């Protein structure tokens, strides 16, 4: 195809078609993926973020991983056994090699967990682990400081790294295993895991290329993709256009405004799931005297119409919430429903002596969550009905978080995803009494403090009986609901889209780590 | 001449100094870079350590002097995101932007001069009126809208059926109005040719040249109408002047009058405006590159702002300041070549 022909043909709008999937002609299947951002580094312990975990699942394997319905699926660990209250033994899969050719053994797991405990981003969630030892080449033993019910949840974060590959010194005399947040390290530019794909080329901010690892251990994986090209396309409209024009095969996320457009297109398919990221509002009791009165907080809870926000503003792309824990989480209390009732709200305000309302300030990000600024505007409008006047300011996320840390407004919007896929993580960061020393309530911008509830959460965190623990956490959700500790809005949905021949449905999950190693591209 | 260049060199240094001071002064409002580096659940103590390591707690003057000392040795700091010297990051992104600007400039120059001259010579012809009408529309549409419309029409394709599909001529007309798409919608493609250093080019093969088409048209869409109107207005004025009337009376061929005598004088103000506008083009590349995910400096800058990558933001702003000074200097030099009565050093001829 010559340039002249292309230009001319396109300009007069005549027929022209680039091969839609270049994979069709050859045996090599290339999957072209466009995400909104690319991984910040090749060192999977450098940052705890969605993008880094997606990279981890491509190039490494976890000990266990989540299935679509919140079960644990054995990966590098084949079996696990609770020896006593604080000890767990895991049996590791045998006969696995890293990309470098080194064999995978228990010492790699030990090395990786010790490195996780040094990582600024991971050390907090790995704090409960006291020690890990290699019993033999294919067995490791975890010791926790106290009985800890979430060890398997943690194991989904353990992607064993090639300890031999990352040990020793670089030419410039630096430790190959060091974790450097700002600046280059060996691990941020070199990678060796056990995962289905190797990194073949990487240009930060432009693209990452992967090739299938020829000695991948999982023979049961149906995945047939040979190459992946990951391009970051941050502009929503362009990402969608790239999919619709056939320039890429798989995109995430699909922006809510384009859902209908993608759904209507016959060549591509859209997959949505109810997500686990809760969007909520904190009412700062230290800044506003009225928020100390539970009746005022309840009145606000009765004023906010979560269903209307989810249906109209989010166009159905959200699940209205009355609690923090989404369905499937241990603490999810099925009895809690959004409680929109304007009359009740007015009555409560009257009882509390605020019939004439008051004025507050509010801040929200405008490029962090889906429709975040519009949600904040809707909330401000709703609050006007009980005479609460809101002075709203929305900011880009880079400027918003410093304001959030300074608790700079009376009402602040935040979204939270539990790193452990467990309810207790929500309480630890969002509702516990703020304590700068322990880091509890780090994002509790409501300054809400109820030691009774914190005590139950602490007890639940030592309870290894899953049913009993679940009951305790559900009780906590109920208590927070009754007390209107915060205003939950909704769980943000997730959306992916792909060309029809890419079978993405089986590899997607609400954690938003597509298991691309298992993805199948249908061939004609 | 030499004196002029030395003077301009000092201008450049002064501009870069002022930009660096201003951007340093506002850096606190650009967001917290630490927030971008760590996960949300990282405790405050870890953040404080990192902040201290990066020297973000030092007073303004200390931070600035440290920066200035390094900058004098051409070390502008490390990008927080790329973990590389900012100058290297910019050098890597510069070729993409320059190639895009070159393509847009090519479109602007080759189209605006003939169209502008034509509509000045024949101001009442229907074609001139059409050009003027379209150019008004072109000036009014924001560049990102142009870009998205281009992507929809030429990358995704549109199918519209206002005419009956089952009749021959209807189907033919529908086909004429619909497009199949197929033009690349984003990026520079995978077939770039290496020239030297960090420079990979889109110009070396037809397949990669295709990637330039839509971004270049979008970028040109703002300036092209402006230049057409400017050239037309200047040319109309020149054609009214006495020397053109004399030339006509003298019996010189119209072609010679238009293209030699009149055009030369028309171009003087166009060059001045053009030089300034090429600087402005840098600003518009930010929008174009964002929509087309073109991996140039504009996209890099916008991403840097999102990530609060302060060293990269500051270096970018200084580089843009330098580009402005350089283009202005070049414009002045060219001006001197076109019009010998202008003396660069300011002394009378």
Write a short abstract of this structure.
Chain A is an alpha+beta fold and 524 residues long. Chain A has helices at residues 3-11, 50-59, 106-116, 151-155, 186-189, 236-244, 259-264, 294-303, 306-313, 342-351, 372-383, 397-405, 423-431, 451-460, 466-483, and strands at residues 30-35, 64-66, 72-74, 77-84, 87-92, 129-136, 139-144, 197-203, 207-212, 227-232, 250-252, 268-283, 318-320, 358-365, 388-395, 411-416, 487-499, 502-503, 520-521. In chain A, helix 8 packs antiparallel against helix 10 (342-351).
Kindly describe this structure.
The complex is a heterodimer of chains A (524) and B (349). With 524 residues, chain A is α+β, with helices and mostly antiparallel strands. Chain A is 27% helix and 23% strand. Chain A has helices at 3-11, 50-59, 106-116, 151-155, 186-189, 236-244, 259-264, 294-303, 306-313, 342-351, 372-383, 397-405, 423-431, 451-460, 466-483, and strands spanning 30-35, 64-66, 72-74, 77-84, 87-92, 129-136, 139-144, 197-203, 207-212, 227-232, 250-252, 268-283, 318-320, 358-365, 388-395, 411-416, 487-499, 502-503, 520-521. Mean pLDDT of chain A is 90; it is low at 1-25. Chain B is built from 13 helices and 2 strands; from the N terminus they run H-H-H-H-H-H-H-H-E-E-H-H-H-H-H. In chain B, helix 1 (2-26) runs antiparallel to helix 13 and helix 5 (86-121) packs parallel to helix 13. The model of chain B has no long low-confidence stretch (mean pLDDT 86). The relative contact order of chain B is 0.15. With 349 residues, chain B is mainly α.
Keywords:
heterodimer; A: 524 residues; alpha+beta; 4-stranded antiparallel beta sheet; 27% helix; disordered N terminus; B: 349 residues; mainly alpha; flat
């Amino acid at each position: 195809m010559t340039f002249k022909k292309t230009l001319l043909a396109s300009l007069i709008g005549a027929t022209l078609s680039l091969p839609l999937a270049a994979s069709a002609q050859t045996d090599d299947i290339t999957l072209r993926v466009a995400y909104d951002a690319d991984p910040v580094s090749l060192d999977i312990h450098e940052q705890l973020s969605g993008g880094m975990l997606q990279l981890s699942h491509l190039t490494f394997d976890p000990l266990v991983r989540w299935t679509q319905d919140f079960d644990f699926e054995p990966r590098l660990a084949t079996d696990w056994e609770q020896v006593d209250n604080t000890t767990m033994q895991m049996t590791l899969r045998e006969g696995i090699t890293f990309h470098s050719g080194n064999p995978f053994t228990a010492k790699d797991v030990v090395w990786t967990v010790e490195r996780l405990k040094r990582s600024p981003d991971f050390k907090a969630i790995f704090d409960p682990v006291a020690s890990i030892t290699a019993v033999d080449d294919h067995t490791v033993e975890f010791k926790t400081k106290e009985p800890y019910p979430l060890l398997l949840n943690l194991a989904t974060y353990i992607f064993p790294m090639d300890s031999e590959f990352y040990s020793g010194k670089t030419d410039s005399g630096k430790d190959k295993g060091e974790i450097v947040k700002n600046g280059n390290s060996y691990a941020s530019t070199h990678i060796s895991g056990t995962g289905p794909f190797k990194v073949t080329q990487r240009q930060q901010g432009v693209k990452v290329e992967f090739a299938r690892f020829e000695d991948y251990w999982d023979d049961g994986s149906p995945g047939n993709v040979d190459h992946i090209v990951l391009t970051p396309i941050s502009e929503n409209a362009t990402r969608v256009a790239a999919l619709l024009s056939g320039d890429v095969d798989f995109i995430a996320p699909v922006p809510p405004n384009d859902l209908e457009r993608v759904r209507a297109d016959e060549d591509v398919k859209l997959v949505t799931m109810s997500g686990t990221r809760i969007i909520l509002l904190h009412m700062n009791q230290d800044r506003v005297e009225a928020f100390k009165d539970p009746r005022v907080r309840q009145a606000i809870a009765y004023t906010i119409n979560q269903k209307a926000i989810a249906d109209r503003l989010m166009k159905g792309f959200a699940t209205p919430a009355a609690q923090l824990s989404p369905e499937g989480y241990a603490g999810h209390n099925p009895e809690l429903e959004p409680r929109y009732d304007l009359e009740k709200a007015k009555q409560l305000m009257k009882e509390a002596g605020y019939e004439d309302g008051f004025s507050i300030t509010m801040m929200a990000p405008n490029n962090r969550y889906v429709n975040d600024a519009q949600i904040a505007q809707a909330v401000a409008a709703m609050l006007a009905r009980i005479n609460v006047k809101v002075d709203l300011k929305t900011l880009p996320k880079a400027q918003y978080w410093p304001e959030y840390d300074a608790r700079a407004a009376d009402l602040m919007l935040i979204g939270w995803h539990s790193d452990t896929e467990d309810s207790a993580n929500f309480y630890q960061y969002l509702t516990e009494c703020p304590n700068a020393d322990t880091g509890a309530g780090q994002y509790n911008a409501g300054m809400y403090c109820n030691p009774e509830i914190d005590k139950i959460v602490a007890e639940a965190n030592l309870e290894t009986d899953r049913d009993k623990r679940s009951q305790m956490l559900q009780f906590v959700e109920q208590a927070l609901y009754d007390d209107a500790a915060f205003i939950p809005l909704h769980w943000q949905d997730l959306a992916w889209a792909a060309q029809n021949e890419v079978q993405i449905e089986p590899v997607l999950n609400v954690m938003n780590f597509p298991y691309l190693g298992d993805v199948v591209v249908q061939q004609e | 001449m030499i004196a002029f260049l030395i003077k301009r060199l000092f201008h450049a240094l002064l501009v870069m100094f002022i930009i660096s001071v201003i951007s340093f002064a506002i850096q606190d409002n650009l967001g917290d870079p630490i927030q971008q580096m760590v996960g949300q659940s990282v405790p405050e103590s870890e953040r404080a350590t990192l902040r201290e390591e990066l020297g973000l707690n030092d007073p303004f003057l200390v931070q600035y002097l440290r920066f200035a000392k390094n900058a004098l040795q051409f070390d502008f700091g490390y990008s927080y995101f790329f973990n590389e010297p900012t100058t290297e990051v910019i050098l890597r992104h510069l070729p993409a932007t320059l190639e895009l600007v070159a393509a847009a400039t090519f479109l602007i120059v080759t189209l605006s001069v003939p169209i502008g001259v034509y509509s000045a010579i024949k101001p009442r012809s229907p074609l001139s009126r059409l050009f003027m009408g379209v150019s008004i529309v072109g000036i009014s549409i924001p560049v990102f809208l142009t870009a998205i419309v281009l992507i929809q029409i030429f990358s995704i394709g549109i199918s519209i059926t206002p005419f009956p599909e089952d009749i021959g001529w209807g189907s033919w007309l529908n086909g004429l109005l619909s497009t199949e798409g197929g033009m690349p919608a984003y990026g520079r493609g995978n077939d770039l040719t290496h020239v030297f250093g960090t420079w990979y080019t889109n110009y070396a093969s037809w397949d990669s040249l295709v990637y330039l088409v839509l971004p270049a048209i979008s970028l040109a869409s703002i300036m092209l109408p402006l230049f057409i109107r400017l050239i037309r207005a200047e040319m109309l004025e020149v054609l009214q002047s006495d020397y053109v009337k004399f030339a006509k009376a003298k019996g010189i061929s119209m072609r010679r009058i238009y293209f030699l005598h009149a055009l030369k004088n028309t171009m003087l103000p166009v060059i001045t405006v053009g030089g300034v506008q090429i600087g402005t083009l840098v600003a518009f590349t930010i929008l174009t590159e964002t929509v087309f995910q073109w991996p140039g400096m504009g996209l890099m800058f916008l991403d840097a702002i999102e990530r609060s990558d302060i060293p990269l933001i500051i270096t970018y702003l200084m580089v843009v300041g330098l580009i402005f000074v350089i283009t202005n200097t070049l414009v002045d030099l060219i001006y001197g070549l076109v019009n010998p009565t202008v003396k660069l050093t300011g002394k009378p001829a």
